[in-house]
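Severity: low
Component: inverse-folding endpoint
Summary: output formatting inconsistent between runs
Steps to reproduce: submit the following structure tokens with default settings.
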């Protein structure tokens, strides 16, 4: 193992154990509950445990979404023509879309693996099982999600919780043996780019003031860039822009449906478009799940 790789693992483990020292949040509890299930899927099918866990955390909001609580659907998998099991209707890319419903979380994890074993996702398996970034980008390229920042969110979650440790036997042992670095290091927010705009991805518990302080940016400026009137806790895994958003949406996207747990504001963050522009384009549309928004 290179010295550089060793430092990365030490830093990630410090994050993991410092999180464990405090009261566990739903995301850490989810990892504790389902990590072994993800490891089993990796051993059976070759899908990185880190990717499975990150998708589960993101798609189910750490097991708190209605799809997960009512239908044990942890990965947002829709019915499709071949599905013969139970179903749930939820707002997503369109209103009242059909999603799969399972008898248990284990059934959902297994179906997720079988879903990725379809021909459409074959290019994923050309990547090394430890290359979580390639898998995350590959999922987006293969059309798993319509979210333009889907890969970035997955990578952020994996790095935030050091989920890549679950992808190797040595990593799993390192997590168990590394309590000596408890509370020694802190997590930071790497600056990323979305549509050419600099941004960071919020972690659970982040506020605009905490991110402004960490990055040395005036809070008032950060609030303005993100169309927010006052400081508040940020929705986990939402973009926080470090410069002014754009007046136009990404190419190839003309409309979007407000999904469960979403709003005009979260849509504007997802696509990097100013909230004022979004409202001008949709003056009579109500800000609620199921509403269809024009983006151009």
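Observed output (run 2 of 3):
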């Amino acid at each position: 193992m290179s010295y550089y790789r060793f430092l990365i693992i030490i830093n990630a483990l410090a994050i993991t154990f410092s999180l464990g020292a405090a009261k566990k949040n739903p995301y850490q509890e989810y990892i504790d509950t389902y990590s072994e299930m993800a490891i089993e899927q990796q051993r059976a099918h070759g899908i990185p445990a880190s990717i499975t866990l990150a998708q589960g955390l993101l798609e189910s909001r750490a097991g708190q979404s209605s799809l997960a609580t009512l239908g044990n659907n942890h990965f947002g998998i829709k019915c499709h023509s071949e599905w013969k099991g139970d179903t749930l209707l939820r707002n997503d890319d369109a209103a009242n879309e059909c999603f799969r419903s399972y008898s248990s979380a284990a059934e959902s994890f297994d179906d997720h693996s079988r879903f990725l074993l379809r021909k459409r996702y074959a290019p994923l398996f050309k990547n090394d099982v430890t290359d979580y970034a390639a898998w995350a980008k590959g999922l987006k390229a293969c059309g798993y999600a319509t979210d333009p920042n889907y890969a970035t969110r997955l990578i952020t979650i994996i790095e935030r919780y050091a989920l890549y440790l679950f992808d190797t036997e040595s990593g799993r042992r390192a997590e168990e043996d590394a309590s000596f670095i408890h509370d020694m290091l802190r997590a930071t927010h790497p600056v990323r780019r979305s549509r050419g705009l600099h941004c960071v991805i919020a972690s659970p518990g982040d506020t605009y003031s905490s991110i402004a302080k960490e990055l040395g940016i005036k809070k008032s400026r950060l609030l303005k860039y993100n169309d927010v009137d006052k400081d508040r806790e940020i929705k986990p895994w939402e973009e926080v822009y470090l410069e002014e958003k754009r007046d136009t949406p990404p190419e190839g996207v003309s409309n979007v449906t407000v999904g469960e747990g979403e709003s005009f504001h979260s849509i504007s963050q997802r696509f990097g478009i100013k909230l004022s522009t979004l409202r001008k384009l949709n003056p009579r549309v109500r800000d609620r799940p199921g509403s269809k928004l024009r983006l151009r």
